[in-house]
């Protein structure tokens, strides 16, 4: 298994291009099943999760390839059923979008239980509630999720919690349902909007994505086409935070500034210089930063996916900060690793109380999940001495060319396979 060896203490400087958004890509790829046609999906990040989804579509019978520069050409016309009991879906969380997409097209789906980051229970009761409201019946047998419908009929669904996954799954299942579907208390995240935009570009009738009420009018069929995925706001936020942690000066290209407002606002509040130039930011350290409090919330609140790198930054800011993780109950596991590096952080349930320290020391640390891994890399970039981040496969699931991008900015990083 690969690890990264990082020599800390280098100020990051230069330009970085942000890749396509993992969490949008992983919804749009299965949405292509609904088209039953040929799609070209551009600006995909070439990451493990995207390659696993390519393999899932292939296994289902699609003609599919992903180019080195992130273009997927996929023809889903030859898929005849959505039956995948073989465990492939366990490799990623977003495989649960096969439920909505497969149900929409074939009225029946069988998949193994989805995987993904171990950051909490990650229930799917709201997905089930929504799909059943459209006429489907769920069952769980031998760790297989089974969903089936005679026919799908539009309905009004109120989500009890704001769920990105449930919103997208219901939206997909409703594409061919008879009549109108209304999702109330829908998630407003950019990945929900991007998936709706993809489906609309292929002939769907979805209105209101990006607000908390989404209305879908069933259509007879979709067609193929070309679509480009939005930039990854989580990757962009990770580099913005890395600029702050290393007291650096970065130009972050290929972003949508609006999607980054929750993070821009906090970094500015702390004293970072941020200037916007259309689809890029200059993010630079000016003066000593001040501590802030963070609470993760659904969009447009502070994203849970950036809680970990932000905690690393706060651990190096003089004074007291509090981070509350309100989305996932188990997303503080990496803090033990950060404490090994000299951070002063106490976790109490969903609250982390941070007392800023002057510097972090080098250590051997283990990535516990995707964003935890990215956060530990950022911590090691700032630490005194040479550190090792183990279990980098977590990071490879979701960050494209991470060490190359950091090395282009002046970081000293080497990837080593464990056998070496
Ligand atoms: C609202 C939110 O921040 N969503 C994030 C969540 O999406 P993801 O789609 O994984 O998670 P959801 O948005 O569905 O979950 C949000 C919350 O609702 C709860 N829940 C969800 C579904 C359900 O059926 N029942 C239920 O109780 C979850 O436990 C969680 O507390 O993780 C992704 C990967 O980190 C992020 O990109 C998303 O921005
Ligand atoms: C938790 C994440 O990924 P996943 O939902 O795919 O496990 C993430 O993108 O931060």
UniProtKB/TrEMBL annotation:
The active site is at 117 (proton donor). Its EC number is 2.5.1.7. The keyword Cytoplasm applies. One of its GO terms (cellular component) is cytoplasm. GO terms for biological process: cell division; cell wall organization; peptidoglycan biosynthetic process; regulation of cell shape; UDP-N-acetylgalactosamine biosynthetic process. Pathway: Cell wall biogenesis; peptidoglycan biosynthesis. The modification 2-(S-cysteinyl)pyruvic acid O-phosphothioketal is found at residue 117. It catalyses: phosphoenolpyruvate + UDP-N-acetyl-alpha-D-glucosamine = UDP-N-acetyl-3-O-(1-carboxyvinyl)-alpha-D-glucosamine + phosphate. Residues 7-405 form the Enolpyruvate transferase domain. The keyword Chaperone does not apply. Phosphoenolpyruvate binds at residues 22-23. It is found in: Cytoplasm. Belongs to the EPSP synthase family. MurA subfamily. Cell wall formation. Adds enolpyruvyl to UDP-N-acetylglucosamine. This is UDP-N-acetylglucosamine 1-carboxyvinyltransferase. It comes from Dethiosulfatibacter aminovorans DSM 17477. The lineage of its organism: Bacteria, Bacillati, Bacillota, Tissierellia, Dethiosulfatibacter. The gene is murA.
